[in-house]
Amino acid sequence: xxxxxxxxxxxxxxWRIPCRGPAPFGRLGASGxxxxxxxxxxxxxxxxxxxxxxxxxxxxxxxxxxxxxxMRCVEVGHRxxxxxxxxxxxxxxxxxxxxxxxxPDDQLRAALAGGYxxxxxxxxxxxxxVAVISVPTPLAEGIPDLSFVESASxxxxxxxxxxxxxxxxxxxxxxxxDELVRPILESTGLRAGEDFFLGYSPERIDPGNxxxxxxxTPKVVSGIDxxxxxxxxxxxxxxxxxxxxxxxxxxxxxxxxxxxxxxxxNIALVNELAMFADDxxxxxxxxxxAASTKxxxxxxxxxxxxxxxHCLPIDxxxxxxxxxxxxxxxxxxxxLANDVNEHMPEYVVRRAQRMLNDRGLAVxxxxxxxxxxxxxxxxxDWRESPSVAVADLLAExxxxxxxxxPYLPASAELPAQTELVEVxxxxxxxxxxVVLLVDHPEFxxxxxCRSSRLVLDTKGVLRSREFVGETL
Length: 472
Description:
The protein is α/β, with parallel strands linked by helices.
């Protein structure tokens, strides 16, 4: 649809009329046009719907971020539509089967009974009051891939109507909401800030975190203007305990990247320090424990086999790419952290190789059990998991590998030559080496120590016990 021009009738019977001289009627807003009166009326109507829980909410993307948001929307009384392009996922959701670890089947079924509607038909979203875009933002050859955001924005544009609010939640670089999402939505002829509202709110979902979930984690909110901020803030205020408004979408977009870059850089620091401490004959874990007694100026981070999930391996690179594109300068902290963390799986394999060599064994033909394949404890999410890289490297060296992970489904497509099995005393006893990669609570430390002939503990969970082997 072509862009609307001033003085022309717009969709839904709205007009944008230029105002010269005294106002033709009523009190005008800051823009000095009747359009601002229309915007204020639309905002008041939207806020009233949200307050009365009479709004229709569409969550675009039903993955690790979107599905928990949809469940919470139903919980507080919103009519909720979950849009997902993957028809197989939609079928699972409709059948009450969750593929997201933090959402049990019982919760999903209760949501379905409470009015949650999963769909792969964008037309079903027509008439929405709130649309939240929660789709993946991966890297493609080191460059941000916003194709999912772009596709989702085009889909939302097809059913966009006056008086609604669109909120981008996907992690991205500063400027995405204004420079990518806004023009797509405005191609309908509707104007952001006048006919509909637009904002950004970075997701803070932490899979497997039993202490901080969606509701009790403060939600950063922003809008392209004051009215959009009010709309975004009002919506999330119905879902979470506390919102944190910021001045612009660019600030909010930077918040998420800052949070994850902070973690990424500090994890890289302790990972590199762990390698140097081993060379120096120093127990890095004891040093970290002692440093953690300082009540100020220090925050505890621990080493591991690498970083995984969507956030740490990817989000800092969005920031680095954006900085270099805008300023022409590299973000050296991020590039160095990427280099350290990406090579941690290689370091784990070198340590494993050394341990086997010390016992007169070669990696080729060695029976190696990998404990944990998800990227973090207590979750089935194994996107970008360093365990995958460890398995691939060991397989290339000719090791006979099996993996144990109670959270991964039997249908999980693991790397070639890696079989998913249940951990047992017999399995551990038959292994030449057991590598503990993820500290899942289901892994019994006593069983691992008692049954294994040789262990490489990359997470420090066996430090208080007697076992044959080493800690990273």
